Amino acid sequence: MPARELGTLLRWEKSRLSHQIRRMQERGLVAREPNPADGRSAMICLLPAGRRAIEDAAPEHVRNVRRHMIDLFTPAELDTLAGLNERILRHLAGEPRPEEAAPGPHAPAPT
Question: I need a surface site. Which of 3, 6, 37, 87 has the fewest CB within 10 A?
Fold first, then answer.
């Protein structure tokens, strides 16, 4: 992935991203390679050790999320939380809320 695109996705400043990538390079988790599409930028590539680190961390991460979040809610509360998360994701994607997309039966007629 191009470093600039990664920074945009993470919403990190260039210096913060550069510092983190340097630390991950030193640990052998990622490599910085020239971007063939744009000689002024670099591609950040996940190395096998980086993939293993993610895979090794995943089970403990899942256990902690379940213990500290999921297990605290009833099934009905989880359904509510899922619905709220979907609404947030639609908003972040720029989709209109259902009540904004089409007038309902109680919406005033356009003038």
Answer: 37
Distance of CA 104 to the CA centre of its chain: 33
Residues constituting the chain: 111
Span 13-71, pLDDT tens digits = 989 999 999 999 999 999 999 988 888 888 999 999 999 999 999 999 999 999 999 99
Whole-structure pTM over 0.90, yes or no?
no
Helices of type H across the chain:
3-10, 14-26, 48-68, 75-92, 98-101
Q: Cα(3)–Cα(19) distance, rounded to whole angstroms?
A: 12
Cα–Cα separations (whole angstroms), residue 4 to 15, 33, 40: 11, 13, 11
Residue closest to 29 by CA, chosen among 51, 8, 14, 13: 51
